[in-house]
Amino acid sequence: MATGLSSSSRTHGTGSPPSGDPVAEVFDAVKHFVAPEGGTVTALDEVSLAVSAGEFVTLLGPSGCGKTTLLRCISGFEDLDSGEVRIAGEPMTGVPAQHRPVNTVFQTYALFPHLRVDANVAYGLEVTGVPRRERTVRVAQALEQVGLQGLERRKPDQLSGGQRQRVALARAIINRPKLLLLDEPLSALDRNLRHSMQLELKTLQHELGICFLFVTHDQEEALTMSDRIVVLNHGRIEQIGTPEQLYHTPATTFVAQFIGDGALYTGSVEGGPDPALVTDDGLRLAVRDGATAGRRMTMLLRPEQLGGAPAGKDPAFGIVEATLEQSVFYGATRQLVCRLGNGAAITVTPNPGGADEKLFRAQPGDALRLAYLRTEPHLIEEAPDGA
Length: 387
Description:
The chain has 9 helices and 20 strands. By secondary structure, the protein is α+β, with helices and mostly antiparallel strands. A hairpin with a 2-residue loop joins β9 (about 230-235) and β10.
């Protein structure tokens, strides 16, 4: 059974950026749009955020949560209804997009189809009047940084999806912006290429030292690449923190559901020598000592926190009785979809050896006795409906 962080260490803060002057700041940003059917939609609802030099920060959330709107307001493609954006300490109110010290990489790459790779990359330098000789040197440097040496003379339609993505990146970094904004730039790539580009993009960001503000709805992508993640929902920030903080100690049930796999159980804490969370449908789940008796809470159980139950009774563990419904083989790992006695589903990721070997070999229909260290599950101090 894997061990995780204790639920006693909760992170509810704003996930403070590293020390130093922030590259970008957003203060109480509000943005409304007129809906086609009438009325208005609130895309941003008093959002505040600070991003520091050298950070890779990801805006994460479902479609319509406000992440792309926030990016566009920072870049200058949208104006805030109220609030303020500052870049390198300078207010951006009234400053058009082309005069802001940021560059944007779009989901569609936005390359000029009639221009060669080198001309696409050099475009920003050309419009700002950089001399030809300097343009040539800087284009060569940018193409080398993204691994496109030798492809200078190709047109975009002669490149693969990953190569076009690299051209867009080269064009964005060649102006040496203080902040690079990336709006779901990997979404059009296939799974394998997307994974390799995630690693390359993170490496490139580290080498350049440029602050990246990245938009995605893919939680795995956010966890893989980010120094900090900003989780948005209905135009508001649910939580800001490191990938580890958001995964192990989500502040709200929305974050717990959106980041990673896991099962949520809401109920009231029952005190005594064996404290437990008694769910609304009668399930009794052991919790850590010190949980406040009588308080309504939500327990988060991650698949890796569950394993085969030890022989006999051990007060360090909570026990869950379940029936195996489906076993999904992933090579080195196996995912078990189980059903509890109250009808709730739970997922288990057992280890292929040791104490979990029997669990790893279980077949659909088998009765399982699952265990978790009672100190591991995270407790969220509010019910999903805010009760």
